[in-house]
Automatic annotation (TrEMBL):
SUPFAM superfamilies: SNF-like. Coiled coil: none annotated. This is Amino acid transporter transmembrane domain-containing protein. Pfam families: SNF. The keyword tRNA processing does not apply. Residues 1-24 are annotated as: Disordered. It is found in: Membrane. Keywords: Disulfide bond, Membrane, Metal-binding, Sodium, Symport, Transmembrane, Transmembrane helix, Transport. It comes from Diploscapter pachys. Disulfide bonds join C86-C96.
Length: 412
């Protein structure tokens, strides 16, 4: 007893009931409350880690896509686009077509390709695979680094670092520009697209529903993933950015505004893109479904071909489009790095004293991690990371449990 008192502990404190104005300690109101709270805590902790992992995967390759866009921005300044002819050293003239051949020339090329068991490729495809990516046939064939993409990726990471190194208050200037300038670019592309022949065909294809496709699970998987990407849900970035607000900030208002603005922007961008696809469909004599090819590099296959066939101001619109892709990519990367770095700082508060150094090391780590994706087999690696690490089932799984954690944990 005496030892207890010497240590500042009085056993009577544990025997006597609370008295006076001291409030009683709260109790669980139901027998399942404690169990559900533990589950919600575990789910919430797992969701938080899952958000970080998803962001980790995206950050690892997003600057690679930015490097592709920068490559095309530079190439678009040429009077003759490097992707519109088959006379370059990277072209295989046996199976290369530009889309401007006569019927006889096209038949001859197809016959030559058939003899060699090759499929015909457009000059745009060969420029993308053989010049930009210098892509190997197999994922195991690294084939060395594509140094031009490597250098452009260095530039992209330097922009990301200097956009964030002074903190969120300085980063907002960069974000303002990246958020508003693409609207100007989309407006210009939309006006130009609507004036092209065949624009109505593309818009009709865009708005016409295909009920039979809705029966497939993959369509819903792709649509759900795209919605999460579009709104930034499941990456933890929005939560990290929101943590910089005041405690009583009206987040509901911001969420409604963001959903409305983002949804409207997506619809508007759809009109801009599909009006151009309609033009491609009419000029090439193909169905739009045959023009659009799936994959991460879709924009780098579709728009160069569009730019090659524009009657006037080809260079201007090509630079404008790829500059928009660059800015949007950098904006997304800056926000994701800020979200991840905020999570790291919250876990290790001491890093706030050395923000510039720790941020630099974080950017350096992800830069080194992305180097394999600018090798000759880099596109194969990027496709795998994108499909299985940062989208699809992984993203849907994390978002599902995030909803469960919020609705049945925080909500109760």
């Amino acid at each position: 007893m005496e030892r207890s008192k010497e240590n500042g502990l009085d056993p009577k404190m544990h025997d006597e009931p609370p008295h006076g104005d001291a409030p009683e300690r709260g109790q669980w109101s139901g027998k399942f409350d404690f169990l559900m709270s533990m589950i919600a805590y575990a789910v919430g902790l797992g969701v938080g880690i899952g958000n970080v992992v998803i962001s980790f995967m995206c950050i690892a390759y997003f600057c690679v896509i930015v490097s592709w866009a920068l490559y095309y921005v530079i190439a678009s300044f040429n009077f003759t686009f490097p992707w519109e002819t088959c006379a370059n050293y990277w072209n295989n003239r046996t199976n290369c077509i530009t889309g401007k051949e006569t019927i006889q020339e096209l038949a001859r090329i197809k016959a030559s390709a058939l003899r060699l068991k090759l499929t015909t490729q457009t000059s745009v495809e060969q420029y993308w695979e053989n010049r930009v990516l210098q892509q190997s046939d197999d994922i195991a064939e690294f084939g060395g680094i594509q140094w031009e993409l490597f250098g452009l990726m260095v530039v992209a990471w330097l922009i990301v670092y200097f956009a964030l190194w002074k903190g969120i208050t300085e980063a907002r200037k960069f974000v303002y520009f990246c958020a508003l300038f693409p609207y100007f670019l989309i407006a210009v592309l939309l006006i130009r697209g609507l004036t092209l022949p065949g624009a109505g065909t593309g818009i009709y294809y865009y708005l016409k529903p295909n009920i039979t496709r809705l029966m497939g699970t993959q369509v819903w998987m792709d649509a759900g993933t795209q919605v999460f990407y579009s709104y930034g849900v499941g990456f933890g970035t929005l939560i990290a950015l929101g943590s910089h607000n005041k405690f009583h900030h009206n987040c509901v208002r911001d969420a409604i505004a963001m959903c409305f603005i983002n949804g409207s922007t997506s619809i508007l961008a759809g009109f801009a893109i599909f009006s151009v696809l309609g033009y491609m469909s009419v000029t090439a004599g193909k169905d739009i479904a045959d023009i659009v090819k799936p994959g991460v590099g879709l924009a780098f296959l579709v728009y160069p071909e569009v730019a090659s066939n524009l009657p006037v101001m080809r260079q201007f619109f090509a630079v404008l489009f790829f500059l928009m892709i660059t800015i949007l990519g950098l904006d997304s990367q800056v926000c994701m790095v800020e979200g991840l770095f905020t999570a790291i700082e919250d876990r290790f508060p001491i890093l706030r004293r050395h923000k510039k150094t720790s941020l630099g090391l974080t950017c350096l780590f992800f830069f080194l991690l992305s180097i394999p994706m600018v090798t000759k087999s880099g596109a194969h690696w990027l496709t795998i990371v994108d499909a299985y690490g940062a989208s699809g089932y992984a993203l849907l799984f994390v978002v599902f449990w995030e909803v469960v954690g919020i609705a049945h944990g925080i909500g109760n």
